[in-house]
């Protein structure tokens, strides 16, 4: 399934829906950081503040967040 062009705001909205919280001390400069505690591990996701996040960067963010493309697209549509 093809990924659309999304902004950092879109990614943040999806991450908040799945339980990620803002980590103000982790993000620096033009990047935002979000974290989530899973069963036995903590997930940290760094997101660049951009209007259009490159596809490779988006795929890396999804992997760090533990989301599949399908899950991300479904959450994006809501």
From TrEMBL:
Domain of life where this protein originates: Bacteria
InterPro entries: HicA_mRNA_interferase, HicA_sf
Keyword NAD among record annotations: no
Pfam families according to UniProt: HicA_toxin
Entries under Gene3D superfamilies matching the protein: Hypothetical protein (3.30.920.30)
GO molecular function: endonuclease activity; hydrolase activity; mRNA binding
Record bears the keyword Signal: no
Keywords on record: Endonuclease, Hydrolase, Nuclease, RNA-binding, Stress response, Toxin-antitoxin system
Family named by the database record: Belongs to the HicA mRNA interferase family.
Protein name stated in the entry: Addiction module toxin, HicA family
Natural source organism: candidate division WOR-3 bacterium JGI_Cruoil_03_44_89
